[in-house]
Structures are given as structure tokens and as C-alpha cells.
Design brief:
It holds the Pfam family SnoaL_2. This protein is α+β, with helices and mostly antiparallel strands. The chain has 4 helices and 10 strands, in the order αβαββββαβαββββ. It starts with a helix and ends in a 16-residue tail after the last strand.
Length: 257
């Protein structure tokens, strides 16, 4: 049986935990471009990080996996130099992985105000015929609300207050989002999206990769949305502070899609 690109990615990520050598063959060693700025470029950089892991410390539990053309993207519960939640994006050429992006955030010790974790919730992919429609909806939402701040358009993207939230600090519903933003503002903490770099989707799930600032820090935002009946129904995210150029192990940039 032919192994799918999704299966290749699951095997490669799991090999971080199991130390299996075979999945490395799914990477094209001549063309592998690394966008995790803390990791050296190419296969050598990937191997160096694995060698630095404390023995038997790594854990990899893939929660969701999606495919959009030559891209496979995942939502994963990690122990990787400590408990983390991450999104990974892999680009394939001729059945081999040639490029990798990711965003990692420390896993919180407690649930959010609505008793949700960063990873729980549905993972079934439906509405494959609506993939492009859902990608357009979500891109418009991020553009209108998060980039341009046109808050008068906010309610149109949701079914009333029905909105399930997995951000560690935010409760369900538009009401929960509003309260969280008000509280952050009262503490002098502001979030600004400046640029959308990539929109990927499969069926009812859409991932948006954006760049901006959070609490005055240069930040990479990965937001995963579940769409239901033409409205945004659920949201997961991972935010990562982008390290300065002086600390970077490669020159490929955090984005560069």
C-alpha cells in the first residue's frame, strides 16, 4: 500500500519520541528548508536538536492532521524540552518533505475559563466540498477583525454567542472574547495582527498563519478555526514570540511561504 503524506508526517513526528530512524527517509536531504528559527537548516539541524533532547523525555501525541495540496499541517501535544502545544506545517515535493514551519507554546497547567484545553474538541473533517469557501470566510474574518479592527463586522461571522474557545485565557462566546480583550487593555497588553502569511484548510478546518505583536513583542500567530454552517464555531491557537536575528540558527525567516 502507498503511504500517504499525512502518514509520513505522523511517522516523522512520532519518531521524535520513539527515535525510529526510518521516517527520516521521508525528508529530501538536499532540499529541506527549516523555518523554526531555533533550529539549524537542513537535515543536520533537525538531527542536532534531537541529540540535545534529554533521554526518553520527548512525547508526541498528534491530535489533528490536515492536508491542503502539497501541504500537511498538524496540531500536536508535545513534550519537547517541556510540555508544549504546537502546530507544524510540512511542504511536499514529489512525495518528500522539503520545507517545515511550526509554532510552539508552553502548555498551560490549567484549563481556560470555559474548562477547555488547547487541544480538546472535535477532529473529524467534514464538508470537503466547502474547503475553499471556508478558507475565504476565515481569511476575511482575520482580515476584517484582527488585522483591520473593523469590529462592526464581528457579529456577522458567528452564530450569536455560539463560539467555542480554546485559548488558555479566553472564555467561550463573543462575550468571553470581549471580556478578555477588555481585561488585557486594562493591563496595558495589546494584540495586533499585521500580516496574513498563509491560509490552509481541509473541509471544516482552516489554519491561518499571521504576524504581528502581542504585549509589544514580535509574534507569530497560528489560529485554527472550525466552521459550521458558514459561521465560525470553534477556535484553537498557538502564539510564539519571534526570536531576534542574533539568536537565530538559520536565515530562512519565520514565514517565507
Amino acid at each position: 500500500m502507498k503511504i500517504t503524506n499525512k502518514q509520513k508526517v505522523v511517522s516523522l513526528l512520532k519518531s521524535i519520541e520513539t527515535e525510529a530512524k526510518e521516517p527520516i527517509a521521508f525528508i529530501n536531504p538536499q532540499k529541506y528548508i527549516q523555518h523554526n528559527l531555533a533550529v539549524g537548516d537542513g537535515l543536520a539541524g533537525f538531527g542536532e536538536v534531537l541529540h540535545q533532547l534529554p533521554p526518553n523525555s520527548a512525547k508526541v501525541n498528534n491530535i489533528r492532521i490536515f492536508k491542503d495540496g502539497d501541504f500537511v499541517f498538524t496540531h500536536t501535544d508535545y513534550n519537547f524540552f517541556g510540555p508544549k502545544i504546537g502546530f507544524d506545517i510540512f511542504r511536499f515535493e514529489n512525495g518528500k518533505i522539503v520545507e517545515h514551519w511550526d509554532n510552539l507554546q508552553e502548555k498551560p497547567a490549567s484549563l481556560n475559563p470555559s474548562n477547555r484545553s488547547m487541544i480538546d474538541g472535535p477532529n473529524e473533517i467534514t464538508d470537503l466540498d466547502k474547503t475553499q469557501e471556508n478558507k475565504t470566510l476565515v481569511k476575511n474574518f482575520v482580515t476584517d477583525i484582527l488585522v483591520n479592527g473593523n469590529m462592526q463586522k464581528l457579529a456577522g461571522y458567528f452564530d450569536g454567542d455560539k463560539y467555542l474557545q480554546h485559548n488558555p485565557q479566553v472564555a467561550d462566546g463573543l462575550s468571553g472574547l470581549g471580556k478578555a480583550l477588555e481585561f488585557m487593555a486594562s493591563q496595558g497588553v495589546f494584540m495586533k495582527y499585521n500580516t496574513i502569511h498563509k491560509v490552509l484548510g481541509e473541509g471544516n478546518f482552516v489554519l491561518v498563519v499571521s504576524e504581528g505583536t502581542f504585549a509589544d513583542k514580535h509574534t507569530s500567530f497560528y489560529d485554527l478555526f472550525r466552521v459550521e454552517n458558514g459561521k465560525i464555531a470553534e477556535h484553537w491557537d498557538v502564539m510564539e514570540t519571534i526570536i531576534p536575528e542574533s539568536e537565530r540558527k538559520n536565515n530562512n525567516g519565520k514565514f517565507g511561504f
